[in-house]
Amino acid sequence: MNPVDIAEPLRSRWSPSSFDPTHELTTAELSRLLEAAQWAPSGGNRQPWRFFVAPRGSAVHDVLVPHLSRGNSGWVPRASAVLIATALLADEGEEPGDPTFPAYGVGLAAGQVVLQARAMGLHAHQFAGFDHDAVAAALEVPAHAKVLTGIAVGRRGAPDGMSERDAERDHRERRRLPLAEIAFGARWGEPFPGLQASGPTVAEVAEAAEDPGGA
Ligand SMILES: Cc1cc2nc3c(=O)[nH]c(=O)nc-3n(C[C@H](O)[C@H](O)[C@H](O)COP(=O)(O)O)c2cc1C
Q1: Could you say which DSSP state residue 184 is in?
Q2: What is the structure's pLDDT at 69?
Q3: Gap from CA of 127 to ligand 1 centroid (Å)
Q4: In this structure, which residue's CA is closest to atom 7 in ligand 1?
Q5: Which of 116, 131, 156, 173 is most open to solvent, judged by the fewest CB atoms within 10 Å of its CB?
Q6: What are the chain's domains?
């Protein structure tokens, strides 16, 4: 299942694992990615996003890599750079409050980075599988901020040198809940009437595969 009628670069965005381990991002390209984040909306325009910028081989990259989860340790280091997205939970010296809206804001900014990457012909793959506490301690993240995710950015490459498991991930079917399960009308759980996906649903594709002669 892939989107059909939504706008670019939303349509062609996905999260590959087979990054080209020789590709590098220029500082100008990193600047554009961060500028995309900079212009995200946020509650009260508080701009709660902070990023560590970690090109492959940089000191921050060297801090992150040993703390990646087993599932992420094969593919993340191949990407040209990782942006480590952190949320500012309070002003300096203040107790961290409710993280809901800071985290919401960082999610929006991360989404803009990912789409900007695609618009630049690059790909981005976010990941939460790493030891957040160890990375936060090594990078001296203060108590009023929280490390949330990594955003691996790069150019797609051949899967040479990747484990079979990692290489296979890029060929998995992408699945999404149908609109009826995520968009409600009169009350919680009641689908908003009449909404239609522009592409076939997972169920429709499976049905067609079982009955190739069907309508
Ligand atoms: C908050 C967050 C955490 C994620 N963590 C991981 C991760 O640790 N490892 C990984 O391979 N992918 C991770 N992903 C990527 C998702 O698995 C991926 O976005 C999802 O399967 C949908 O696939 P798509 O991005 O190709 O549409 C994460 C994505 C988000 C937004």
Answers
A1: B
A2: 98
A3: 6
A4: 127
A5: 173
A6: 27-169 (3.40.109.10), 179-210 (no CATH)
